[in-house]
């Protein structure tokens, strides 16, 4: 865990999220405590203590740094405190390998690093190369690099193969997975990984019945299955037509207020099977109405206690018509900005609530919404990013004003996201009519009524402010 955390610091990436979930510490509460420290001397002492503390201390520091938009030099400063000089230099050298997309250049970089650091371990590199070769259509070479890995790196290599979007490679991967699962002395973690791959590949072929069988095997073998794994098993039961067995679990998911279209779809089918004479839409609407009332009551007396006041950056970006817009175009307006991406599941889960907000204020000329697609992982052209976004909006009946924050070809960064210190998405920003950021909200807690009620309360507060 220490190695993974320190890589997060040195590379400035967000893998700390996984580490947060593995701890019993209340990181959210601790993080808020650090952010509330006003004395700069005390704050520096606290951060220095975290930098030299436990692995979980370092994880907390990573979260704080990402939220504050630390510069690369700040990441390196704290990483250097925890790493031997050779390890730090090795991690810096690895950055070129991780960033390179051309396979031949990647191999040359790795060869150079291995000569410079002959005593380091390279299993993680081999795991990534297994995926690279598979994506290039060379399955034999992919397996050759997988065989160079072991333990956690082996699991990473298998996972890389599962995500290759090539029918021919997927068929070869499936055969190899089935063959490997026949081994009697296969490590337990690797067996679970392969079973998950098999389940995933069956789902890709829409063979939900057999996928559910494999999912049950996974639950039986796993001593501590996650709630997501349990829930997914019941979703597969529903998809395979076993509504009676799936319904109790699906009902619990709905009652937990999970905003997941897949769960909603399966719950509707299971509910109609269990209660053929009832109106499922009316049933879901009644549940939603109760929640709306609860959250509206929660924010009824909102007084702006969580508002901040920071000057918003001057920015330029493209709208859906490829027209350049800037901060000046929204002078004297209340701006609701949502940084999102089509690959981001929490972003997409929050969009139904944001659509409700757009509908609520569609006739209010003072409130302007900007849905800024950023941090695209395909790195394509404006037209491709725009068309993918608009296609998603159309498929879900969203009428959201789209803007595009493309990655700069030279700096490899999304400029507008950088200006707003966006480290994770979804990231929502509310700006008052005087050009000050009053709210930064990162992530989505899964509740559409909560999102709508909170954002509405903040918007109304900003509308009523006099300065």
Automatic annotation (TrEMBL):
SUPFAM superfamilies: Thioredoxin-like. InterPro entries: AhpC/TSA, Thioredoxin-like_sf, Thioredoxin_domain, Thioredoxin_ResA/DsbE_sf. Residues 306-464 form the Thioredoxin domain. GO terms for molecular function: antioxidant activity; oxidoreductase activity. Pfam families: AhpC-TSA. It comes from the Bacteria. PANTHER family: PROTEIN DIPZ, THIOL:DISULFIDE INTERCHANGE PROTEIN DSBE. This is Redoxin domain-containing protein. It comes from Pedobacter sp. KACC 23697.
């Amino acid at each position: 865990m220490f190695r993974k955390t320190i890589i997060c610091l040195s590379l400035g990436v967000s893998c700390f999220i996984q580490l947060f979930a593995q701890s019993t510490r209340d990181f959210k509460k601790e993080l808020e405590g650090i952010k509330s420290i006003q004395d700069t001397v005390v704050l520096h002492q606290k951060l220095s203590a975290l930098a030299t503390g436990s692995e979980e201390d370092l994880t907390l520091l990573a979260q704080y740094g990402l939220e504050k938009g630390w510069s690369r030099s700040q990441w390196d400063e704290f990483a250097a405190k925890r790493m031997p000089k050779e390890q730090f230099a090795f991690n810096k050298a690895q950055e070129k390998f991780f960033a390179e997309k051309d396979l031949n250049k990647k191999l040359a970089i790795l060869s150079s690093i291995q000569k410079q650091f002959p005593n380091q371990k390279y299993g993680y590199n081999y795991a990534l190369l297994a995926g690279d070769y598979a994506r290039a259509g060379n399955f034999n070479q992919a397996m050759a690099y997988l065989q160079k890995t072991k333990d956690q790196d082996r699991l990473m290599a298998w996972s890389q193969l599962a995500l290759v979007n090539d029918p021919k490679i997927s068929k070869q991967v499936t055969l190899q997975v089935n063959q490997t699962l026949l081994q009697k002395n296969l490590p337990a973690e690797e067996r679970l990984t392969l079973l998950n791959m098999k389940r995933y590949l069956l789902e890709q072929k829409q063979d939900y019945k057999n996928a559910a069988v494999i999912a049950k095997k996974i639950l039986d073998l796993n001593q501590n299955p996650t709630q997501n794994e349990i829930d997914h098993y019941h979703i597969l039961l529903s998809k395979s037509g076993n509504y009676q067995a799936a319904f109790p679990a699906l009902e619990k998911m709905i009652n937990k207020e999970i905003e997941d279209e897949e769960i909603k779809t399966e719950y509707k089918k299971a509910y109609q099977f269990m209660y053929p004479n009832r109106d499922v839409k009316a049933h879901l609407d009644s549940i939603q109405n109760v929640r709306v009332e609860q959250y509206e009551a929660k924010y009824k007396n909102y007084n702006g206690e969580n508002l901040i006041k920071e000057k918003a950056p001057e920015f330029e970006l493209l709208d859906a018509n490829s027209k350049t817009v800037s901060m000046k175009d929204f002078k004297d307006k209340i701006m609701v900005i949502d940084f999102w991406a089509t690959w981001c599941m929490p972003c997409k889960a929050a969009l139904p609530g944001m659509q409700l907000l757009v509908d609520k204020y569609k006739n209010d000329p003072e409130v302007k919404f900007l849905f800024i697609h950023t941090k695209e992982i395909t790195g394509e052209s404006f037209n491709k990013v725009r068309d993918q976004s608009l296609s998603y909006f159309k498929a879900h009946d969203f009428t959201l004003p789209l803007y595009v924050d493309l990655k700069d070809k030279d700096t490899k960064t999304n400029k507008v996201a950088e200006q707003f210190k966006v480290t994770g998405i979804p990231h929502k920003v509310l700006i008052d009519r005087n050009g000050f950021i009053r709210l930064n909200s990162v992530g989505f807690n899964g509740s559409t009524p909560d999102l709508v009620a909170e954002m509405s309360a903040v918007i109304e507060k900003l509308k009523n402010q006099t300065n």
